[in-house]
Amino acid sequence: MRWRWQWNGLHNQYHIWLRDLLHGNLGYSFRDNQPVTALLLRALGSTLPLTIAAFLVTIAAAHVLTLLLARYRGIRYAVLGGLHMLHALPLFVVALLLLLLLANPDMLALFPAYGMGRADSTASWNSQLLGFLHHITLPLLSLVLVSLPALVVQLDNSLQQELKTDYVVTARAKGLANRLVVRRHALRNALLPAIIYIADLLPALVAGAVVVEWIFAVPGMGRLLAEAAAAHDFPVLLGGVLLIALTRLLAQILADWLSYQADPRTRLEA
């Protein structure tokens, strides 16, 4: 009878959560009875800077590295081989390796091993920013190292195909420098196939934040959802799923906008 009483209680809480959701409220946490919206917004304060910074750094690093591979072809195969090896490593392995190598007193204790530091209201804005960057470096580097190889390989393959086209051969025949051919002509068209991957990058970073925040004890979305899963806190879990779905939708909108910017002939359709 005890299990039946527990099931009935959980069933009633679930119906209450659905009723609150229909009224525009995500409900209350089963664990501490706090509003789910407040919990998610509090966790996003740590997750958003991490994921957005990882997204921007990954795209910028992929752009620079792709240009370097096109310019210095002698190192291309060695760098691509290293990227393929890095791509084979799971996220938690990369995060643990960084933790052991760069936050270990027996190796190099360059960065903090966990947390986001203590908030000090008396410190200056610059000191708080530097402290935040110091704590976020290893989680950020973990996400970038895992996301970078696939994007660079995709951009490099697209760029190599564009460099074989007739308009590139014509531009080179007119005496245009190779770096200008790559930057002004080939790279812009090579971005089109990679935009689909870029659209999937942001939701993948949000999912990767679950692992990274758990390893580095960052009080963000990942840690919140992991603790909610362990405690069977379904309102928090469902709120997190809705938030990830919204991120996916925004990523698709961003991909459409990037496609239009890369090729103005593309028309956005409803």
Specify the helix fraction band.
Answer: over 70%
**How many angstroms does the end-to-end distance come to?**
54 Å
Structural class by secondary-structure content: mainly alpha
Shape, principal axes of CA atoms: globular
Strand content: under 5%
CATH architecture: Orthogonal Bundle
Q: Largest sheet, if any? A: none
- Using only C-alpha atoms, the radius of gyration works out to 23 Å
What is the typical, i.e. mean, pLDDT? 76
Number of domain units: 1
Write down the secondary-structure element order. Answer: HHHHHHHHH
Low-confidence stretches: 1-7
SS element count, helices: 9
Q: Write down the CATH class.
A: Mainly Alpha
Briefly note the CATH topology name: MetI-like fold
CATH superfamily: MetI-like
- Total E-strand runs: 0
Transmembrane segments: 48-70, 77-102, 132-153, 190-216, 236-258
Protein name: ABC transporter permease
Pfam family, one: BPD_transp_1
Domain ABC transmembrane type-1: 44-255
List the helices and strands and how they pair.
Blueprint: H1 2-22, H2 36-71, H3 76-87, H4 91-102, H5 125-162, H6 166-173, H7 178-215, H8 221-230, H9 234-262
Domain ABC transmembrane type-1: 44-255
Keywords: Cell membrane, Membrane, Transmembrane, Transmembrane helix, Transport
Pfam family, one: BPD_transp_1
